[in-house]
Design a protein that fits this description.
Helices cover about 45% and strands about 15% of the residues. The protein is of the alpha/beta class.
Length: about 200
């Protein structure tokens, strides 16, 4: 299983531990070499591998993907759990184009490109595998903030790629967790709207 970078290190670690407990060989990716090394040391499991991979460095995707495949030999489960992009909620009329672009790149563009590569890899190698996208309940809500809009895109592309890949016996699913306490939620969108 390949678990791609999550901004929430605990979510990434919990998922990796669950796969390891079932006997899977796992690669966990992320931007921080130090956090990845600390996790690997804490688990001391020969089936756990790490790979430094910045989800916003789109030019490196092919190289990093090939590196992950060469580490494993074959990958039949991909978990795309990149998320984040906003340091805090702002009033609806205060978001900038830069915040919108960054949040979209992290939550939607990265997932779109990963699903493309994963699907092609499985088709080319005749792998009847699985892709799991971690989206968010925010993608189902009518909110006016960059994160919700980006997660709506993640939800949409998950359904779209699932329809394309099922013909190859590749199953794509999405999980949309509810609200999780993160640093961004210290500033709620309701509180921000009260300031507008």
């Amino acid at each position: 299983a390949l678990s791609s970078a999550a901004s929430d290190v605990y979510k990434r670690q919990a998922m990796a531990k669950a796969y390891l407990a079932e006997g899977a060989e796992v690669i966990v990716t992320g931007r921080s070499k130090e956090k990845l090394s600390n996790f690997q040391l804490s688990e001391s499991n020969a089936k756990l591998h790490t790979l430094v991979w910045d989800a916003l460095d789109f030019d490196s995707y092919k190289q990093k993907f090939d590196e992950a495949v060469s580490m494993m030999g074959r990958i039949d489960i991909f978990v795309n759990n990149v998320g984040g992009g906003m340091s805090k909620y702002e009033p609806w009329n205060a978001y900038t184009a830069e915040v919108l672009d960054r949040t979209y790149d992290i939550n939607t563009k990265s997932m779109f490109l990963m699903c493309q590569m994963e699907g092609l890899y499985m088709i080319d190698n005749k792998i009847k595998g699985n892709i799991l996208n971690i989206t968010s309940i925010a993608g189902y809500q009518r909110l006016f903030d960059p994160y919700a809009v980006a997660k709506w895109g993640a939800h949409s592309l998950t359904g779209g790629i699932a329809r394309k890949l099922i013909a190859y016996d590749i199953v794509v699913n999405g999980i949309a967790p509810g609200t999780c306490l993160t640093s961004c939620l210290l500033y709620t969108s309701d509180a921000a709207d009260d300031k507008a």
